[in-house]
Specification:
264 residues; alpha/beta; TIM Barrel; 14% strand; globular; lyase; EC 4.2.1.20; Trp_synthase_alpha_AS; amino-acid biosynthesis
């Protein structure tokens, strides 16, 4: 049982949902990113999702695309991110995931990448563009290094939902709406019905993500989801460090409003 599984189990015993926060590695630079990681943990994140900078992040909206560009402009590499995670691991045992794209793994070398993740202290991977048919290229190495491959499922997955969830580990990333990431004021999907349907297929914890940005949204969704994922709203506060002279502590204060809502 790795850190993700243990955390989800511990929270379930306390009848709490996991608060999962996202940032982009190296945005706007490594030292600031490390400070934001610490603030996120100190202010209530149960799990942290780290975006591995990529030139074509197809699942991301404008905010996270801009964060990728800021990191890449500073020349950050995959190896730099691995070293950053190792540094953070010296002071933290929080579950950590990478969000990245299949080509990044393939280019690095599949087994080499999974071993590097294990050595750095990464517990899971979210790969939005990984076709179900290609999971087996990665899963054997992930299993060998005790890394969860997090499955994504959407309300429109229809006939494939059961097949997708049967392969799930860690938690299911339940996408709230179609399109790219970004803050939303409302959601067209009946999310409770979506989660209820998935509960028929698997006991794997379900976390809702894409567009969630306010304590009010979280207070409602935590009643039927095992986890809540917030990305763009946090990334917007990190962007303000460079555009509005904000600080990592300001990011932490915002995260606390969200985690408090999730754990209430």
């Amino acid at each position: 049982m790795n850190r993700i599984d243990q955390k989800m189990q511990d929270l379930k015993a306390k009848h709490q949902s996991a608060f999962i926060g996202f940032l982009t590695a190296g945005d706007p630079d490594i030292p600031t990113c490390l400070a934001c990681l610490k603030q996120m943990e100190d202010n209530g994140c149960d799990i942290i999702e780290i975006g591995l900078p990529f030139s074509d992040p197809i699942a991301e909206g404008p905010l996270i695309q801009a964060a990728n560009l800021r990191a890449l402009t500073h020349g950050i590499t995959t190896d730099d991110v691995m070293e950053m995670v190792k540094t953070f691991r010296l002071q933290s045992d929080i579950p950590l995931l990478f969000l990245l794209y299949y080509n990044q793994i393939f280019t690095y070398g599949i087994e080499k990448f999974l071993k590097a993740c294990h050595d750095a202290g990464i517990d899971g991977l979210i790969i939005p563009d990984l076709p179900l048919e290609h999971r087996e290229e990665i899963v054997p190495y992930a299993d060998a290094y005790d890394i969860d491959i997090i499955s994504l499922v959407t309300p429109v997955s229809k006939q494939r939902k059961q097949e997708i969830v049967s392969n799930s580990k860690g938690f299911l990333y339940c996408v709230t709406s179609t399109g790219v990431t970004g803050e939303r004021s409302s959601f067209k999907t009946d999310l409770k019905a979506f989660i209820d349907e998935l509960n028929q297929y698997t006991d794997t914890p379900k976390a809702l993500g894409f567009g969630i940005s306010t304590p009010e949204q979280i207070k409602e969704m935590k009643n039927y989801a095992d986890g809540i994922i917030v990305g763009s709203a946090i990334v917007r506060r990190i962007e303000a460090i460079t555009t509005q002279n904000k600080t990592p502590e300001d990011v932490g204060e915002f995260v606390k409003t969200l985690s408090d809502a999730c754990h209430a």
